[in-house]
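Technical appendix A lists one of the benchmark inputs used to test multi-chain prediction within the project. The record comprises two sequence entries:
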Amino acid sequence: MERSSASMWRKLNSRYNLVGTECENCKTLYFPSRIVCKNCGRQTKMRDKTFKGTGEVYSFTKIHVPAEAFREDAPYTVAVIRLDEGPMVEGHIVESDKEVKIGTKVRQVFRKMLVEEEEGLIHYHFKFEPA
Amino acid sequence: MRDVAIIGVGLTRFGERWEHGMRELMAEAGIHALEDAGITSKDVEVVYGSTMASGRFIGQEHVAALLSDQLGFKNIPAVRIENACASGGSALRQGYLAVGSGMHDIVVVGGVEKMTDVTTGEATTALGGAGDQEWELAQGITFPGLYALMAKRHMHDYGTTEEQLAAVSVKNHLNAVNNEYAQFRKKISIQDVMNSKMVAEPLKVFDCSPISDGAAVAVLAPLEIARKYNDTPIQILASSQASDTLGLAEREKLTEIKATQIAAADAYKRARMTPKDIGIVEVHDCFTIAEVMAMEDLGFYEKGKAAKAIADGETALGSKLSVNTSGGLKGCGHPVGATGIKQAWEIVTQLRGEAGQRQVSGAEVGMAHNVGGSGATAVVHIMKRAN
């Protein structure tokens, strides 16, 4: 998938630092960030919320047939992580010797996600590693 | 609301239709439907056309007007409906509303997808757009990957096994053998599924619906005039739809499709029925785990009980509840925009008693269940043969 540099740039803080949002009204936490709180509607008062990046594996899979942009990387493991603060987030699990299972404790790391072809951008992103 | 009936249906053979482009597929299914309904092109007042990603597959948008023109409809309103893999079911619902409201009498709904003109990688990317492009596909989480995440958790919570998932595929392939429109008409075994190439663990190639070309068209009319056109009109008793987050991780649970539960509850209420009243159902088996979850979310089984029941043959053709008699998305094929209307085609064909070798005897009430993405849209229709 060809992505414009602007589309990556505008979400850099979230992609690098796991920044979501919190509704000051009802205290609900969101990742990815939202403008409108699902509980409060137009009464929403959102502020940025940086998650600690620790949590556990809620589900995972190893992807063998990748999307086009990831064909050099397959197979790779992705997971749904239940963050310690509550919300769930999808992300890569980096390769390591430790076995990944449902319930495995993980922590966020900063890694290269994708190198665009032909001298394109290098995309960095949060990933997770077994803690 | 007026009562609404389906008075005609038409389908193309699903599969790798290299000899035909999108417009030829639409015309083929459309002509069948018009003939079946006993109407001419001049009778049609509005058309809803559904396709998920024609722009990515063949570079063609504006598909409803193309469908209208290719079927010789004269400058009538034509509207494209896109709801990922639930585009067809959503178009059917729009047609139902157009007739039911009294705005139009004869309405055509047509779904199509031309998928085999691109590589598997390009198709995988296009289908990934059914999920959350910004947070799922951007991280290389493919569409099968999303259902694999659901499957892993379902297996963890309920003890569902890979062999039970494989049984869904075996059943649907067996049903497809007797469907002349199906992409795969070959019996397979549990071992065939287990030995097939891994896509996203635990889902293997034979757990996944294929990439297909095909089109499906239905003609709707008010029930009160339906018999003018057709001896066996099929009444739509309920047409219900719900939505949810695109992103999988933003839902409460991964072991259910909440939109299906909500749409189904609404449909049962409108039809004044319970799951026990349904004799045949076409469920959205884009992956084997999807059929397992659908059987639970539609109320046929308690959560966690469907996989074993399917593996035990409780939903085989001719059992109390026959599921995916067409072969489902797995066996019949899954040209994405056409699927929701193909499901209605199968229910209509069964309720008329015209399903030949795969006919379910005594089926009176049928259901079609169409899901978009990993569950951000669900559409449920309940139908019966009009009295």
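Chain A has two helices and eight strands. Strands of chain A lie at 19-23, 29-30, 46-50, 54-63, 76-83, 88-93, 105-115, 122-130. Comparable benchmark entries are summarised in Table A2.
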